[in-house]
Design goal:
binds hypoxanthine, five-stranded mixed β-barrel, about 30% helix
Amino acid sequence: MTEVSKNTVFYEIERAYEYLQEKLSGREKPILGLVLGSGLGDFAENITDPFVVSYSDIPDFPTSSVEGHKGCFIFGRIGEVPVVCMQGRVHYYEGYTMQKVVMPVRLMCKLGIEKLILTNASGGIRDDLDPGDLMIITDQITSFVPSPLIGPNYEAGPRFPDMSNVYDTDLVEKIKAAASDCGVEVKAGVYLQTTGPNYETPAEIRLYKALGADAVGMSTTVEAMAAVHAGVKVAGISCITNKAAGLSDTHLSHEDVQSTADKAKAGFTKLLLKTIEII
Ligand code: HPA
């Protein structure tokens, strides 16, 4: 085991890594990581020769209490590409530290993935973003949540990493190309992460809009930062499940978020399959 102090998340990553290495022995190394957000977990059905590892079986691994988030890694292939897929993620609002929230992503990076696709459900702030739309994330605002990089520097990357191209430009272009290839409409925009678990107030949404946010949600930006820090290329696709607070008459609920994500499933699946084929 690499020398890291005990009782730290870095030590827990080492232990989880060793556990997975043993479980996976003889299996192909994943080169692409996928995180499936609220209501989007069924995409994992597209993985061939799946090998499932429950988060609850991995030492020190954080597990989610949220409806619609299953809680396992699935290793296998999508088409020709060896993947590791997270069916469910953990969130800051569940009470984990940000370091713990990004532990799963750091673990996938340590397993050797070269690219990571993050997905989520979000509220649309920009006028043209409606429930059911898919939005390629082109940049992010992470200023309203603590950085996951606070604390001693994790050995995977530099102390002061550059964040000027969090969502890899080449991957963004490839997702656009995949969308036009498979006839799925996509939009593009800036995603802002809040701590949650409450949805925003209309005044907060006006603030975020003024700051340049197009969509808002409770995940993703910190995972993207951890992956970029580790030198992994990141892409993000957000499923707009509702108009953000104050922009429509409907009350926001997790059930509606999940059911709208479910309705967007067909387009989301088509887009992601095509994207994975060409990246
Ligand atoms: N706000 C925050 N998170 C969300 C939303 C929202 O409107 N919709 C889905 N996740």
